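pls design
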């Protein structure tokens, strides 16, 4: 029978509350950042009446010109009034929701893909901020025949 290291046992017990605190209360996903009422309203407004489709690994550049920063972990790309792509980042990107920093996307080829990096740069000082990672791109479309 293996003997448990007493220091490892103490560290494991001490770290349990810290690990549990990473996910905000009431969030559906572990580590998911809760939206403020204003952010939830912005997300609902952009996705209203649209139905999610199968996630895409990459989004062609011509589809990613109109970026909407919803929160520190959600980006929307509006292709048209009938089509919006939602990207839930792989983790939070502190400061993204402020919408004042410049997004510098590190891109390989003619598409932005899941797993690609971007970072924020302070518009005034030029200081580089956090590095962030794109998730899958989920298309939200108005159903056929819906003119709304």
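designed seq:
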């Amino acid at each position: 029978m293996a003997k448990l290291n007493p220091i490892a046992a103490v560290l494991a017990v001490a770290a349990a509350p810290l690990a549990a605190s990473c996910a905000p209360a009431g969030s559906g996903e572990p580590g998911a950042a809760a939206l403020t009422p204003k952010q939830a309203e912005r997300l609902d407004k952009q996705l209203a009446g649209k139905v999610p489709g199968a996630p895409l690994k990459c989004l062609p550049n011509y589809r990613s010109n109109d970026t909407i920063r919803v929160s520190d972990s959600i980006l929307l790309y509006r292709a048209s009034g009938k089509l919006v792509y939602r990207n839930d980042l792989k983790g939070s990107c502190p400061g993204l929701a402020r919408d004042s920093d410049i997004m510098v996307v590190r891109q390989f080829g003619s598409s932005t893909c899941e797993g690609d990096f971007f970072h924020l740069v302070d518009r005034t000082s030029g200081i580089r901020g956090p590095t962030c990672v794109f998730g899958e791109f989920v298309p939200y479309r108005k159903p056929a025949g819906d003119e709304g």
